[in-house]
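Here is one chain, start to finish.
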Amino acid sequence: MGTSKRGKNRVALVTVAGRRFSCLVCGQREFTSREILLNTPGLELLDLAWANRSSLGVICMACGYVHEFVGNAVEFWTTAGGYPENAT
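Its structure:
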């Protein structure tokens, strides 16, 4: 079984709400991740961009498409360990 530890710049398998996730563009199942700031004009004008909310960018290792998520439904699993048994 894999691990659900988030790690920047690590290649991982992804589940979203308990379901196996694959790239919406190319179908690849290996991803890396990074934080994406959701900038708003008001906070940008006040020089407070750091206070904006952020989302999770899940980046396809094959085509580079960035899938963006807000919330805690995304989990990462090691490629060596595979998906959890209960993932559909």
